[in-house]
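User: hey, got a sec? need pyranose dehydrogenase (acceptor) folded
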Amino acid sequence: MFLTNFWFSTLSTVAFAMIYNSPECLPSLIFDFIIVGEGTAGSVLANRLTEIPYYQDLVIEAGPNNEGVLNSIVPGLAVNLANSIFDWNFTTTPQAGLNGRSVEFQRGHVLGGSSSVNGMVYTRGSSSDYDRFARITGEPSWSWNALQPYVRKHEGFVPPVDGRNPAGEFDSRFHGFLGPIHTTFAALLSPSINTRILAASRQLQADFSFNLDMNSGTPLGTGWHQSTTGNGERSGAATGYLPSNVRARPNLHILVNTRVTRILQTPGHHGFVMTSAEFTTGNNQQFPRRVLTASKEVILSAGSIGTPHILLHLGIGDENELAKVGIHPVLHLPGVGKNPTDHPLFVVGSVLNITDDADFWGDLSTNATLEAEALQLWNKNKTGPLAVFRRFDQIVWARVAQFILPNGVDPSSGPNSAHYELALEGSATSIASGSSIVSPASRGSVSLATNNPFDAPLIDPAYYSAASRPGHRERVYPPPLINNPSNAFLEDFLRNTSSSNAHAIGTAAMFPVDASWGVVNPDLLLKKARGLRVVDASVYPFVPCAHTQASVYIIAERAADIVKAAWAA
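Assistant: Yep! Here you go:
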């Protein structure tokens, strides 16, 4: 496609004194809290903990500053972020379920983490997703109703950039309007296709009935797509939680382009206390490493891949597996890196010929002149086709029949949870359906290839390893444009074309305090240790039936209150 790689904006940006590129510039080597990773969760914590003026907090981010990165700011340019310096550029291991293929696994390598590079879809999942978290952990505070204050706290809904009244597209009772993360609806670029999709939902009431608000806790049906954008720009964790006034707080210190290799035991303490972070500004084993110390806690917020990678390298995990790669085990927690769950993605497209739709921007992806006009329009007033990411205005969340489920067991959290998602993207000339299994039964692993912390981890989502019956493929995935395809053809087509949604969770899952399994307790403190807390997508024991960024904001907002309460702030 033509969409040009615009890495840095020509607009002037301000360098704030509290963002450091070198540890030599830090005012101290000891802080109250050290947050490892300033991604979706880490940015929330950086903001909320520095609301307490006497806390001195340091955030260490492996990637660069997000300021001025036009591909991240402009929603329509987000496709350029994959395989860039703002991406960890991970790939999965060869997947048996994908006919031996490895696929890209995008993770944000920049302030704001994956919220700075993702597709900006804002979905929370079902109420039963969170009620299952509460049930599994034995902690009622993780339930849907208990978490509602944090839903309102992080969200700041704004009107669509095209100025239309969103009445009839969402239910304001389920939204926050004062939070730092903007949510809204995309500008309508192809009204005719939207009209047809909504008409189809009326015709197929049994399965795809219209849902006024998929973020109400009951997502099933066809609803309007809500995104983390506002006023024509991406609203990510770094832009929302770390605006200029927050970055200027004298008690917040942000160290970028710096990689934490291990969390270390702190000498002089009784028991297993881990409040020191080993780090380097280099990119291989030859660079020197230094140590910073937290007087209260180290909070690991490196994400569902980065968090287990760091834990395993410091010797926390399955002791037998660690020994195989030459790492001395220090704490036997076999759940580290185990059972990650992701949403496999499968796309089917069809050609359309809607003659009553004058789709001026329809050829944007293949017309460089049109693309330049679109960028000029965005620069002028933040509108036009680049003010949205792709062209999907509706999402369908649906379930399959009981007899189709693997061994008859429902992997979802309950009857109001979806089994699959259809993200419908269309224009006057084509329509595509991005289909995802959002309540998968498959479980994978994140493990180490070597004892070198600079080597990428082995990411094995185990896609399609828990097979359903043949009817599932026909039910969830529309057949390609041939007549009467066989089940074998459909299966092969699916396995040869599926990719990752990069929604992995569960690699440092929380379970009850007295549970023999799990990595963290319901208060997110590492089991069998003190001084180390995990706050990111890795702690959820099950993946929500949703794109996962909204749930991470919810986790992090509650975690901030947990930390403040623990230290009586």
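Quick note: The chain has 14 helices and 25 strands. Let me know if you need anything else on pyranose dehydrogenase (acceptor).
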